[in-house]
Automatic annotation (TrEMBL), chain A:
Short name of any one Pfam family annotated for the protein: BPD_transp_1
Major place of residence: membrane
Entry keywords, A to Z: Cell membrane, Membrane, Peptide transport, Protein transport, Transmembrane, Transmembrane helix, Transport
NCBIfam families, sorted: Opp3C (NF045475)
Compartments where located: Cell membrane
Family according to the record: Belongs to the binding-protein-dependent transport system permease family. OppBC subfamily.
Protein name (Swiss-Prot/TrEMBL): ABC transporter permease
Transmembrane region(s): 44-66, 142-167, 179-197, 203-222, 253-286, 306-329
Domain named ABC transmembrane type-1: residues: 140-329
Lineage: Bacteria, Bacillati, Bacillota, Bacilli, Bacillales
Membrane topology summary: Multi-pass membrane protein
Automatic annotation (TrEMBL), chain B:
Keyword Transmembrane helix: yes
Domain of life: Bacteria
The family this protein is said to belong to: Belongs to the binding-protein-dependent transport system permease family.
Membrane topology term: Multi-pass membrane protein
Lineage: Bacteria, Bacillati, Bacillota, Bacilli, Bacillales
InterPro entries, per the entry: BPD_transp_1_N, MetI-like, MetI-like_sf
Claim: Transmembrane helix is one of the keywords in the record: yes
Signal peptide, first to last residue: none
Protein name: ABC transporter permease
Location relative to the cell: Cell membrane
TrEMBL record, chain C:
GO molecular function, one term: ATP binding
Coiled coil residues, start to end: none
Native source species: Chengkuizengella axinellae
Swiss-Prot/TrEMBL keywords: ATP-binding, Cell membrane, Membrane, Nucleotide-binding, Transport
Protein family (similarity comment): Belongs to the ABC transporter superfamily.
Protein name per the record: ABC transporter ATP-binding protein
Subcellular location: Cell membrane
Ranges where the ABC transporter domain occurs: 5-256
Membrane topology: Peripheral membrane protein
């Protein structure tokens, strides 16, 4: 009671309240992309993925020029050298000092000293004496190129096919979906293998083989999205107002599925990288002497037990690329469409 | 429901015929016959071989013969293994592949489910991040790289398990783990999202409000509902296991179908390639069909919808 | 009257990335045996959190009971362990949820869902539990219970499902039933059926009900007493007559005025301006002040205490302070009071007949 008495009469005068103040919007409005960027920035995984990707792409572009060696230059006198990297050679447990241990009981042998080689081969050399640093990064470049182009083609075909099928619906959709169902019945890599058998080996044929059925996934997703969108009221409203098909597609449908398309493409890239490596691995990849990550790993497997360095670096690079793309794709999915989380 | 299944089976059959035709014509598109490349053979011998394998007939006749024989279960004779029937060769090789595939699926799915459920129950803790990290690795690292790592570190360096071949249970350990990483990753990711969704649904609160213990709520009401949709990823998983078996069997020198397939590719053994392709397609289509039917049986909502039609 | 539940100074917060959301900020009320207490308020006022907290069903983390006591049967529910709480849930205190379409397990037979609680709390054998489940389904008005018991939730309509949910809640004859917007998701005709059913069952079982809703029409129909919540606090509490015919808090006025009625004039349908307060940084003083056309300067400075209007009626508004200016309630509210007097004399008149 006492505290109440202290309250002065003045306080009991009516206050002037502006009722509109309660409805003020306090948060700034963000566009779809600003919002997505904010979400991605908070996603530690995606940020790590982006950093890894930028680094790898940098090395894929610049790496081959950082050493004086050519990726095709063979020299049997310096074949099968283990990796030797300045500075890091001093950290003994890394064994990046040009030494090799053939069996458990023998001491490590410095191969560089034995063969009288002064130069440093950072990732070592392969069975024909080619510098693996140069070949690894050139291989990375080729693998990335194949994957990016394949993913892009998949995207274009998939969006067009799925979009047409869903937008026109009815009989068109029916026929187009039966075709898709049949293609789905064949294991993806079996189709790729069959096509690789007919085509002459090369970058182009790998891309072609992978895109023959690679677009199926994208077309399914796009079809599903368009089917959902085209019956929504805002599309109906636009139609009622007399908008043409082209306008509805460009103005209403495409902007609403960009997120899905981007995310899906991001997931196809690692798939394509794996596909290329897989083909190389079963002997259907790039013809020698060209290098891709897959052919390098395939080569390395032959001498895995004695010269593990030959497989080590391309294997690390391909794994890191795959991890990076998956992390970025995961981050993008969460950022662009929270409802889509797998 | 029976009508639906019948319709699906019929459609699957047509799909198979189309796949068989596509494979056949693709093979015909290839330049030459497998015998032209072999220098040891004289022209007369090649001619005799071509005659023997019906390669001199006009393509439509070859096609009709092929499809006709296929329907009888006869996939032709392998070029590589003289006079051996493709069907027999496939049946010979299927054992190890089926063994590896099944073992991989069981191990991968169970481990994946456990990881996924733990991640969902302990959301945003180290358990969750650890499980997610493992799933990203499993999805990202190519199986042949992982197999190589296992072979080198566990097989060669530590000597815990045999490096290659297929001669007993201990020989299956490393191939199974290498092959299961993808299955594990997919199952773990899928299970995590499913469980999070299920555990946040209203009926879980209802179950808790009944006074049931957390274990009963999680297992009887949560896990059961979370597991049902997992059936839908069985199709992609089976496809993944197929491609996985190609490389894994090659790396670990396992006498399975995948290894056979890779070998017939390098030797241009058409009947064998076509036979295995067809076999893989039959398998995949069967799995997809099975998944559809299974899903209808497990989920009462779909079961009824099917019955009403 | 026997108090069955006492909630004292309950504070509940949720720790989010944006900060601590103070969903409930000091709530006091009692529940008497056999009565129905309605808690009304708009979305985000903390009414659902209040009921979930009594059941200890708020997810922890992020939610936590910061302060306060929930006294039931000599125990403080706020301090019970999860194990002890499991013995109370479904047995002494049960809950009915808002959306019958999602609150039943889609892959479990309806009968089994009812039996679970019976087997757990009353240690019934499964055949006895099944018999009781059939009986319960009949009690909540589901025809052919012995057939229905083996069906799945999707084979029931929305109203029928809500009856099942009620059967689950009443399975063990609970002392308290928390009904969290049990009719909101239903069609109007079904709403009436469910409310009648609940009233009927309450009479039979003598259960106390806390009825949470934002629908004042429903409140008038079911409640004995009403608590109005705003911004995580109870701003006015009283008997149903007191709240409807003699409301004191400007927020209650707003709520009542925004309820459409047949006899209200067209221009009288009223909307409270603004939106509910931000509970991460709750406003200083009275949380409702910024939306209140009758606000006093002190409302922006100091939180009003509960002023007593009658033995059963309390309201937290400075307008009841002796120093406050006399404020005329909006015309609609004034008319309500008049209606009340009319209906009273009308009732008397009919009594005389």
């Amino acid at each position: 009671m006492k505290s109440e008495e202290i309250l002065s009469k003045q306080l009991f005068e009516p206050a002037t309240i502006d009722p509109s103040k309660g409805e003020e919007i306090t948060k700034p409005t963000l566009s779809y992309w600003q919002d997505a960027w904010l979400r991605i920035r908070k996603n530690v995984g995606a940020i790590i993925g982006i950093i890894l990707l930028v680094t790898l792409i940098f090395f894929a572009l610049v790496g081959p020029y950082m050493t004086p060696y050519d990726s095709f230059e063979q020299d049997l006198s310096r074949a099968k050298l283990p990796p030797k990297i300045p500075v890091l050679e001093n950290i003994s447990w890394l064994h990046l000092d040009g030494t090799i241990q053939f069996t458990k009981d023998q001491p490590r042998i410095d191969v560089y000293e034995q063969k009288g080689i002064e130069e440093y081969f950072w990732f070592g050399t392969d069975g024909l004496g080619r510098d693996l640093w140069t070949r690894t990064w050139e291989g990375t470049r080729i693998s990335l190129f194949i994957a990016l182009v394949a993913a892009l083609i998949d995207m274009v075909i998939g969006v067009a096919y799925g979009g047409i099928s869903a937008y026109y619906g009815g009989r068109v959709d029916n026929v187009m979906q039966r075709i898709v169902e049949i293609l789905y019945g064949i294991p993806f890599l079996v189709v790729v293998i069959l096509f690789m058998l007919i085509l002459n080996p090369g970058i182009l044929s790998i891309i072609l083989a992978m895109t023959v059925v690679g677009w199926l996934g994208m077309s399914r997703v796009v079809r599903g999205q368009i089917l959902k969108l085209k019956n929504q009221e805002f599309v109906l409203a636009s139609k009622t107002l007399g908008a043409k098909d082209s306008k509805i597609i460009i103005k209403h449908l495409l902007p609403n599925i960009t997120g899905v398309i981007i995310v899906n493409t991001m997931f196809t890239i690692p798939g394509a990288i794996f596909g290329e490596a897989f083909l190389s691995f079963i002997g259907l990849g790039l013809p020698a002497p060209m290098a891709s990550l897959g052919t390098l790993i395939e080569d390395g497997f032959k001498s895995l037990q004695i010269f593990p360095h030959m497989i080590l670096f391309p294997a690390i690079v391909i794994s890191v690329i795959m991890i990076a793309f998956n992390l970025v794709a995961d981050g993008l999915r969460d950022a662009l469409d929270p409802k889509m989380r797998d | 429901m029976a009508k639906y299944i019948l319709k699906r089976v019929a459609f699957s059959f047509i799909t198979l015929l189309i796949i068989a035709s596509i494979t056949f014509f693709l093979m015909k598109l290839m330049p030459g016959t497998p015998f032209t490349a072999q220098e040891k053979l004289t022209e007369v011998q090649i001619e005799i071989l071509n005659e023997k394998y019906n390669l001199n007939d006009p393509v439509p006749v070859q096609y009709a013969k092929y499809i006709g024989n296929m329907l009888k279960g006869d996939l032709g004779v392998s070029f590589q293994f003289d006079n051996r029937n493709v069907t027999d060769l496939i049946l010979d090789r299927i054992g190890p592949s089926a063994h590896l595939g099944l073992q991989t699926l069981i191990f991968g799915a169970i481990a994946g489910i456990i990881f996924g459920v733990i991640a969902a129950l302990k959301q945003n803790t180290m358990w969750d991040y650890g499980s997610t990290f493992l799933a990203v690795l499993g999805k990202s690292i190519p199986n042949f790289v992982f197999a190589g790592m296992l072979q080198y570190f566990i097989g060669v360096k530590l000597g815990w398990f045999p490096v290659a071949f297929w001669e007993g249970p201990s020989y299956t350990v490393m191939p199974t783990i290498a092959n299961a990483m993808f299955t594990l990753a997919v199952a773990a990711r899928f299970m995590r999202t499913e469980m999070i969704e299920v555990l946040s649904s209203d009926y879980i609160v209802t179950a808790k409000a009944k006074g049931l213990s957390s274990a009963v709520v999680t297992i009887k009401h949560g896990l059961r509902n979370g597991l049902i949709p997992l059936v839908t990823v069985l199709g992609p998983l089976a496809a993944g296991l197929l491609t996985g078996s190609l490389v894994i069997e090659r790396i670990f020198a396992i006498p399975g179908l995948g290894e056979q397939f890779v070998r017939s590719i390098t030797t241009n053994d058409f009947p064998m390639i076509m036979g295995i392709t067809l076999f893989y397609s039959v398998f995949l289509i069967f799995v997809i069909l099975l998944v559809d039917i299974l899903y209808g049986i497990i989920d009462p909502r779909i079961r009824l919808a099917g019955g009403n039609k | 009257m026997e108090k069955i539940l006492e909630v004292k100074n309950m504070h509940v917060s949720f720790d989010t990335f944006g900060g601590e959301v103070q969903a409930v900020r000091g709530v006091d009320f009692d529940l008497n045996k056999g009565e129905t207490l309605a808690i009304v308020g708009e979305s985000g006022s903390g009414k659902s959190v209040t009921s979930k907290t009594i059941m200890r069903l708020i997810p922890t983390p992020p939610g936590r009971i910061k302060e306060g006591e929930i006294l039931f049967g000599g125990k403080d529910l706020a301090k019970l362990s999860e194990k002890e709480m499991q013995k109370i849930r479904g047995k002494d205190i049960s809950m009915i949820f808002q959306d019958p379409m999602t609150s039943l397990n889609p892959t479990m037979k309806v009968g089994k869902q009812i039996m679970e609680g019976l087997i757990k709390h009353q240690k019934l054998s499964s055949s006895a539990a099944k018999e009781r489940a059939i009986e319960l389904l009949g009690l909540v008005g589901i025809p052919q219970p012995e057939v229905r018991i083996n069906q799945f939730p999707h084979q029931f309509s929305g109203g029928m499902r809500q009856r099942v949910v009620i059967a689950i809640a009443l399975a063990c004859n609970p002392k308290i039933l928390l009904a969290d917007e049990p009719t909101t998701a239903l069609d109007v005709t079904i709403q009436a059926q469910i409310i009648e059913l609940m009233k009927d069952l309450q009479k039979k079982m003598n259960t106390s009900i806390i009825f949470i809703t934002h629908d004042l029409g429903v409140v008038a129909n079911v409640a004995d007493r009403v608590a109005v919540m705003y911004g995580g606090k109870i701003v006015e509490i009283g008997t149903v007559d007191e709240i409807f015919y003699n409301p004191q808090h400007p927020y209650t006025w707003g709520l009542l005025s925004s309820m459409p009625s047949l006899d209200a004039k067209e221009d009288e349908l009223f909307a409270i301006p603004g939106s509910p307060p931000d509970l991460i940084n709750p406003p200083k003083g009275d949380a409702f002040a910024v939306r209140n056309q009758f606000a006093l300067k002190i409302d922006l400075e100091k939180e009003p205490p509960m002023f007593k209007v009658s033995n059963t009626h309390y309201a937290a508004t400075w307008l009841l302070h002796e120093n406050a200016p006399k404020v005329e309630p909006p015309p609609y509210i004034k008319r309500l009071k008049e209606t009340k007097q009319l209906s009273k004399s009308g009732a008397k008149a009919s009594d005389h007949k």
